C-alpha cells in the first residue's frame, strides 16, 4: 500500500475516533440535561405539592375563623373581629352593621365573652368620653357596683387618656381602660329578637 494511502487511512481513523468521541460526549451531555430537566420537574412538583398543602391549611384556618366570628349566645349575636381598629373606628364598624360594640349586662355574659376572647385584646362598648362617666355605646345603663367584678385589679386607672375599655386577660376580672386610638380586635353585639339576624346563623 502506498504511503499516501496509509496516511489517508490513519487520518480517516483519527477523524472517525474524534467523531465517535464527540457523539459519545454529546449523548452523555444530552443524558445529563434530560436528567437535570426531570429533576427540575420533580422539584417543581414537590414545591407545588408543598404550596398546595400550605394553601389548604390556610383555607381551613380561614373557614374556621369565619365560622367562629358570628356566635349566637343566649339572646344575642356576637361578632368577634379578626381585623384591628381604634375604639371609635370599631364602634363605627358595628354601627354601620346595625349594632354597637358589646355591652356586658351579667356575670354569665362576662364569663362567655372573656373565655371566648381567650386573653386576646377586644374592644367592648364601654368608654368615659369627655369625663362624662362610664357609658355603654348601646345605651345600657352602667352598673358601677356590678362592674367591679369585671375590672382588672387596679382598674380603671385614673389616667385621663385611657378612656376606652377592652378585654386583656383570660379571667373574669379582665377589663382594662386604655388609649382609644390603640388598634385592637373588637366585639359587636346584636339582640336576636330586634335584629332578626340569629335565624341565619
UniProtKB/TrEMBL annotation:
<dbReference type="InterPro" id="IPR016186">
    <property type="entry name" value="C-type_lectin-like/link_sf"/>
</dbReference>
<feature type="transmembrane region" description="Helical">
    <location>
        <begin position="12"/>
        <end position="38"/>
    </location>
</feature>
<keyword id="KW-0812">Transmembrane</keyword>
<dbReference type="InterPro" id="IPR016187">
    <property type="entry name" value="CTDL_fold"/>
</dbReference>
<keyword id="KW-1133">Transmembrane helix</keyword>
<keyword id="KW-0472">Membrane</keyword>
<dbReference type="InterPro" id="IPR051004">
    <property type="entry name" value="DC-SIGN_domain-containing"/>
</dbReference>
<protein>
    <recommendedName>
        <fullName>C-type lectin domain-containing protein</fullName>
    </recommendedName>
</protein>
<feature type="domain" description="C-type lectin">
    <location>
        <begin position="73"/>
        <end position="189"/>
    </location>
</feature>
<dbReference type="Pfam" id="PF00059">
    <property type="entry name" value="Lectin_C"/>
</dbReference>
<dbReference type="InterPro" id="IPR001304">
    <property type="entry name" value="C-type_lectin-like"/>
</dbReference>
